[in-house]
Design goal:
With 113 residues, this protein is mainly alpha-helical. It contains 3 helices and 2 strands, in the order αααββ. It has a two-stranded antiparallel ribbon. A hairpin with a 7-residue loop joins strand 1 and strand 2.
Length: 113
Amino acid sequence: MGQMFDPESIRVYMQNHMNRKGNMQAYLQHITEFPHIAGSEGNYVLGEWVAELYKAAELEEVTMERFDVYLNYPQRDGRRLAIVKPEDLAWEAIIEEEREETFVFHGHSKSGD
């Protein structure tokens, strides 16, 4: 069985080591600046960047593991939010986004209606 740690001591350690120079907000800003959908190149690059931050914070044994998962991926015009039945209540939402670097989608849902 692994060693147990007090959650509060872990929180304090992470804040003191990951936010040494007050960069935590900048790190979060960087993470959200580009698409990083699971399994994509952006996801891999971001994972390596985070691993380097952890190593710089002197965390022990930082490793990356590969996991094969089955996800659907977004497609241009591949999203639709609609009520199709009953026909007398049929309605469809207009989905527009300011930046379409990553299209709207639900990664764990099946394709189609």
